[in-house]
Write a structure and sequence with these properties.
The complex is a heterodimer of chains A (about 600) and B (about 700). Chain A has about 600 residues and is α+β, with helices and mostly antiparallel strands. Chain A is built from 10 helices and 30 strands. Chain B contains 32 helices and 5 strands. The chains are: A alpha+beta (about 600), B mainly alpha (about 700). Chain A: One of its GO terms (biological process) is maturation of SSU-rRNA from tricistronic rRNA transcript (SSU-rRNA, 5.8S rRNA, LSU-rRNA).
């Protein structure tokens, strides 16, 4: 038997052994019965440091009041006090560690400031955790029988089993003429961009199967990428980088970016990062059309590239088995890690920026924790993985030859033994990409494009202020303006995105050195000593003073005269004003109604 | 020579001058000290401590002054004794402190006082400094609806426009202040129940209908053009009047006298005028027609008759009666309207028909100035007010008509209006007198009621929410929610539809093989890799690279030795070891590399200077270490990461001011009241007084 649990944006439930999502009243009911108390729900007191006894007392008092207080109708509040927030949710929104305030603080001012900010962040945390309730969608997954592997389930079966709309998400595009294909989904997940090796570019609104544009650039295409919205996309062609609009009209040909092999778009910085065959990593600011930086990596042909969505660092894979991390602000790699014994074939970084998955010519698949730069798992794939992609929910797809495998719990506790799903396509896989907010994996291969259903891949809850899959044209335009206003400057890209909130600990010398470098000269350098031509005894300091004293009364006179004149003027003005006022004073307030 | 000259010139002067001269001479002989010359003029130098005797060298003793005292017999022995004691007392008073010293002491005292005064502000200042948000102006009225009395009582005309309007209102005696409902009115509003209101309305309706009938009748009567009818009417009325007059002579002689006086007045007027003497245009035409026309003759006759009647002499009334009449007239109408009528049910002022307790004068309309305590109270009061106002106006303008109506109410048979304009005045006087008489007689009360009703007729019925209604409402409300309480258990999670999955399976690939083969393939794989990358040793390359980086990061030793300085130099000579050691500057060891414990990782040690421009370069003020600062910075404030409410709270402005409001400096009373209440206020008051006194002293000085 086949059981499929399929949640997601499609909001489709076929069969479910899962319990329905827990609702708030159920939690409360459990509490009332005295069951499951204090297991996952913690009272608020834990979070409040002992330095705030008053606050705690206040809260208690409030609670008391509430519990005692009944409605006017005489009914009693069945849920007195604030609704408790589960610890898990609180953890989800926790930012950094709480500062442990020592009671014996010398200065009251610091203590107060810290306490206040702690209270504020506590409030923010709680509110955010509370509002998490408004994200009711849960992601599901495919579930097989006791002795059945989910990876043996065919896409056709799934498509048959699910409803029509969801079933329509599995489809094949037979494009044998211009293959193999690279692909890219727009950030909303509505639009698909396909780029065939032999020059075929098409934009498809893939859910409606609506073809937005289709062109042939009559050149080799290495990569395609959507820019910040579905109105523009970049195509890395044989020689230059081109930018087209959604109708396929060529907007720009950027000759500064040549021989581009791979591209990444950093959405919050409006940066298009390109990696070229000549070993250059270049950044193009698409909002102003300027090249932000061009870095010669000196690491050979760059055909493996990924971005870390957490901190906008670009990861490059190299033939010598290393992965280097780059920011536009530094001309040398921030980090260089040796990941494989052979060349790196593909790499991808998860959404939270915690994990990186790489595959190399040594046919290994490695999972790294890029906070600590340590390998977590190392798997051996007989055929090796040519293309890797991580979904929003952390499903890993690896293409080996013409088979695409999907793995679950890649960085979970135990090592995975078998794929979660698998699908064979008609030709060698050239590109895989998960569709955001959908349970869909797009596969570009030699014979065209395949859209594969992968239950549990997409994030079911979307932030409509950030990315709304259902946005209208007007909303898109407004979002664009807002996004441009909120654009993050490329200088802020660094390994630690929280660095901005930290104090710069650099020493004075370090800073000075940087300053000298930036200015090109030393502003603090003392002038070389030059002996002054001095006349004998003529203008000693004392003599100068004496001379000044002789004529000091003149200056004094001047100043006095000036002040007197000023005073006179002021007085005159005042008189004039007073007179004017007196004239005005005869007017009554009601005169304004007279004509 | 000089001496001689002086001598010659002033030889006629007395010995004093001579002594002076001698003195001067003696002073020449070495001793410089010159005796102080005293001047004989009186009281040029008056010291407050000693009395100098004019010209005399010796000082005045007490006994000199008291000698006379003892001689006088009138002085009491007690004072004498005291004086004697004083005389015996040898102690001298201490010298008063010097001016500088006293001022210094005063300054210290003043300083202490003022520090005390100023330090009282300290806590408030600290509190304000610490406060997250300050709201100005400090004395703000609480938000939300206010009671009407509060609003109105505190209001003052501020802007010139308001003042202007205010003054105009004052000059017109419009109500301005004290608009609050009296307890009586409140009670009235409370006591008004629905049933009573209904009864009242029915009564009012009835009365209004009756009034309209009367009015219609009066109008009809007025419109009748038949002279005969009117004549008959008039005659009847006169008869009636005479009858009444006779009665009045017996019962109420003063009123009768008044009537007489009126008659006298009309007589005077008649005598003055040529009205009924057949000298007018009409009369002349009648005279021509008199020969032929009977009616014309009779008309002339009538005229003459009238003249005669009017010019008949009457008894002259006394003076005080006249005065009284004047008073009565001055009182005119208005008061009777609002006079309370004793009603058995005195608890209900509404039913007594009294509008308001302050019904007289302009105070009544004060109620209208503000719309009452609540909506419930407001409407009736304003209605009453309007009614009264209108009524007053009517009284002033057309007294006549109003009275007519009243009388018609009273005596149904009477028809008051005459055709003849000539007789209008008399009629008026008649009715005035009639009315006054009626007023004085005991029958005043029913008329009052009538009058009241007359005005109440116009007043629409206002629905007043009573306590009963409120109770009913309360019941409704109680009932409402209980009915509307939704059953929380109605919503049950719908059972999931379970449909059988399609059982067709196709096995195209065997993914089991993909990963499970690992154990077997590993050995093979290793060989393969070694084979594939025999030439390029990836790992050693990487390690080399890393070592290079480490080397580059290490601080370098600076050698500042100069050969030849302090010792011999030349070819083949090296600076000594000691010197080299002295001039080699060793930099401090670099901090451990971040990738020290990660063999397969090279982490760049370069500082990110671009972000440093946006970072805080120095620890901001209140923080003592960077950990404190960073903990305060860790949670973002923006809308992207927070809920709307949180953002609002986090970004609340430090100081909030009300637009257009004047921000007064904080007064002492404000915070003292906050602090303790009356005690603190007292404490504050005492030093204030002290300072004031001091200030006065200084002024006087």
């Amino acid at each position: 038997l086949l059981y499929i649990v399929f949640y997601g944006v499609s909001r489709l439930i076929l069969r479910s052994y899962l319990k329905p999502p827990k609702r708030y009243w159920e939690v409360n009911a459990g509490e009332e019965n005295g069951e499951a108390e204090n297991t996952d729900v913690s009272p608020n007191q834990d979070n409040i440091s002992k330095e705030q006894p008053d606050k705690i007392r206040d809260e208690r008092r409030q609670k008391k009041k509430r519990s005692h207080g009944s409605f006017i109708s005489g009914k009693k509040d069945p849920f007195p006090g604030e609704a408790p927030i589960p610890n898990e949710q609180l953890k989800k929104f926790q930012r950094g560690e709480k500062f442990q305030v020592v009671i014996a603080f010398r200065l009251g001012k610091v203590k107060e400031t810290i306490l206040r900010s702690e209270a504020a962040s506590d409030l923010a945390l709680k509110q955010a955790a509370r509002y998490d309730l408004l994200l009711p969608e849960e992601s599901g997954f495919l579930e097989g029988d006791d002795d059945e592997d989910t990876c043996t389930i065919l896409q056709e079966d799934i498509a048959d089993a699910v409803d029509i709309t969801s079933g329509a998400k599995y489809f094949n595009l037979h494009l044998t003429q211009f293959g193999p294909y690279r692909l890219d989904y727009s950030r909303t997940g509505r639009h698909l961009l396909l780029g065939g090796k032999r020059g075929h570019v098409s934009c498809i609104e893939w859910q409606t199967k609506n073809l937005t544009c289709e062109i042939n650039v009559m050149e080799t295409i290495h990569d395609v990428k959507w820019l910040h919205s579905e109105a523009m996309f970049a195509v890395a062609q044989k020689q230059w980088l081109y930018i087209y609009d959604s109708k396929g009209i060529e907007l720009h040909c950027i000759k500064k970016f040549n021989n581009v092999l791979r591209m990444q778009f950093l959405p919050y910085h409006f940066l298009l990062a390109t990696a070229s065959a000549t070993g250059f990593l270049q950044y193009l600011d698409v909002s102003v059309g300027k090249e932000v930086s061009a870095i010669g990596t000196k690491l050979g042909r760059l055909d493996v590239m990924a971005q870390n969505p957490h901190n906008a660092i670009v990861h490059l894979g190299h033939p010598n088995g290393t992965v280097s991390l780059w920011s536009p602000n530094q001309r040398e790699p921030l980090v260089k890690m040796l990941c494989h014994r052979g060349g790196v074939r593909s790499l991808t970084v998860d959404r939270s920026g915690t994990y990186m998955v790489t595959s190399g010519l040594d046919r290994k698949l490695k999972v790294y924790d890029i906070r600590a730069f340590k390998a977590l798992h190392s798997y051996f794939l007989p055929a090796g993985a040519s293309c890797l992609s991580l979904s929003q929910r952390g499903l890993l797809s690896a293409a080996t030859g013409d088979v695409v495998q999907v793995y679950r719990d890649v960085w979970g506790g135990g090592s995975m033994s078998k794929p979660y799903m698998a699908h064979r396509v008609r030709g060698a896989v050239w590109g895989v990409d998960y569709c955001p907010f959908e349970d869909v994996l797009g596969i570009g291969h030699e014979a065209g494009f395949t859209s594969m259903i992968v239950p549990g891949a997409g994030e079911p809850n979307f932030d409509a202020l950030d990315m709304n899959p259902y946005r209208s044209t007007k909303q898109r335009q407004e979002w664009e303006v807002k996004a441009l206003l909120d654009k993050v400057q490329p200088e802020l890209i660094g390994l630690d995105p929280g660095l901005l909130s930290k104090v710069d600990q650099a020493t004075f010398e370090q800073k000075h050195k940087e300053r000298v470098e930036a200015l090109g000269y030393d502003p603090l350098a003392t002038e070389k000593f030059k002996p002054r031509l001095k006349k004998r005894g003529r203008s000693s300091a004392g003599a100068v003073e004496r001379r000044k004293k002789k004529v000091a009364h003149e200056d004094q006179k001047d100043t006095i005269r000036k002040t007197v004149e000023e005073r006179m003027e002021r007085e005159n003005e005042r008189k004039v004003k007073a007179q004017e006022q007196a004239e005005h004073g005869t007017r009554t307030a009601l005169d304004r109604f007279k004509k | 020579m000089c001496f001689i000259y002086i001598y010659k010139k002033e030889g006629s002067d007395d010995e004093r001058k001579h002594a002076k001269l001698l003195e001067a001479i003696s002073s020449l002989g070495g001793r410089r000290r010159k005796k102080h010359v005293e001047r004989s003029e009186a009281s040029v130098q008056v010291s407050e401590f000693s009395v100098t005797a004019g010209g005399a060298e010796e000082k005045i003793n007490l006994c000199d002054l008291l000698g006379t005292m003892e001689k006088t017999p009138g002085a009491p022995s007690k004072t004498k004794k005291q004086l004697r004691n004083l005389q015996n007392c040898k102690e001298t008073l201490e010298l008063p402190l010097s001016k500088q010293q006293t001022e210094k002491i005063q300054r210290t005292v003043a300083y202490e006082k003022s520090t005390k005064e100023v330090s009282r502000w300290e806590s408030v200042i600290i509190q304000n400094q610490k406060a997250e948000q300050l709201v100005f102006p400090l004395k703000q009225e609480p938000a939300g609806p206010k009671r009407m009395e509060q609003v109105v009582a505190g209001w003052k005309a501020q802007t010139p426009l308001e003042q202007e309007i205010f003054s105009i209102l004052h000059s017109n005696k419009q109500p301005v202040l004290d608009p609050v409902l009296t307890p009586m009115e409140k009670a009235a509003i409370k006591a008004m129940s629905l049933e009573e209101a209904k009864i009242r309305r029915a009564e009012l309706q009835k009365a209004r209908a009756l009034q309209s009938y009367y009015e219609a009748k009066a109008k009809r009567g007025k419109r009748i053009k038949s002279k005969k009818y009117h004549r008959v009417q008039k005659k009847a009325k006169q008869k009636e009047f005479l009858k009444q007059f006779d009665e009045m002579m017996k019962t109420n002689p003063t009123a009768a006298l008044e009537e007489l006086k009126k008659m006298e007045l009309s007589r005077m007027e008649e005598r003055m005028s040529l009205k009924h003497q057949n000298s007018g245009k009409w009369a002349k035409s009648r005279a021509i027609m008199a020969k032929y026309d009977e009616s014309a003759r009779s008309a002339m006759q009538e005229q003459l008759q009238l003249n005669k009647e009017l010019t008949q002499k009457l008894v002259v009334p006394s003076d005080d009666e006249e005065e009284r009449r004047a008073e009565e007239e001055a009182n005119a109408l208005p008061d009777f309207v609002n006079e309370a009528e004793p009603v058995p049910d005195s608890a209900n002022p509404w039913m007594r028909g009294k509008l308001t307790s302050e019904a007289s004068g302009p105070d009544v309309s004060d109620v209208a100035a503000e719309p009452g305590v609540s909506d419930v109270a407001a409407e009736p009061s304003s209605g009453q007010e309007g009614e009264q106002h209108r009524e007053e106006e009517e009284e002033e303008e057309e007294e006549v008509v109003g009275e007519d109506v009243e009388i018609s109410d009273d005596e149904e048979e009477d028809d008051e209006e005459e055709d003849d304009e000539e007789e209008g005045a008399e009629v008026v006087s008649e009715f005035n007198s009639l009315f006054n008489r009626l007023m004085q007689s005991g029958r005043a009360e029913p008329q009052q009621i009538q009058a009241e009703e007359a005005e109440l007729l116009d007043e629409g019925l206002v629905y007043v929410r009573t306590m009963d209604d409120l109770e009913a409402l309360g019941q409704d409300e109680m009932a409402g929610p209980s009915n509307a309480v939704p059953d929380p258990h109605t919503q049950t999670p719908s059972a999931e539809a379970t449909t059988e999955p399609p059982s067709k399976k196709k096995k195209e690939i065997d993914p089991k093989e993909v990963l499970t083969k690992e154990a077997k393939t590993i050995t093979k794989g290793l060989f393969l890799i070694h084979e594939a990358f025999a030439g390029d040793d990836v790992i050693s390359d990487f390690l080399k690279d890393k070592r290079k980086q480490e080397e580059a990061g290490r601080p370098k030793v600076v050698d500042l030795t100069l050969p030849g300085w302090g010792e011999w130099g030349g070819v083949g000579l090296k600076p000594s070891r000691q010197k080299r050691r002295k001039f080699r500057l060793k930099a401090a060891a670099a901090p451990p590399r971040k990738d020290q414990k990660l063999p397969a990782v090279i982490i760049s040690e370069k500082r990110n200077a671009s972000i440093a421009a946006h970072q805080v370069s120095q620890l901001p003020f209140p923080f003592q270490n960077s950990a404190q600062f960073e903990s305060c910075m860790r949670s973002p404030v923006g809308q992207t990461w927070n809920t709307q409410n949180t953002v609002k709270k986090l970004t609340a402005p430090r100081v909030v001011t009300k637009l257009g409001a004047i921000i007064q400096p904080m007064a002492k009373e404000d915070f003292l009241k906050q602090k303790k209440g009356p005690e603190a206020a007292k404490q504050g008051a005492i030093p204030l007084r002290g300072t004031r006194k001091k200030g006065k002293k200084k002024d006087s000085r």
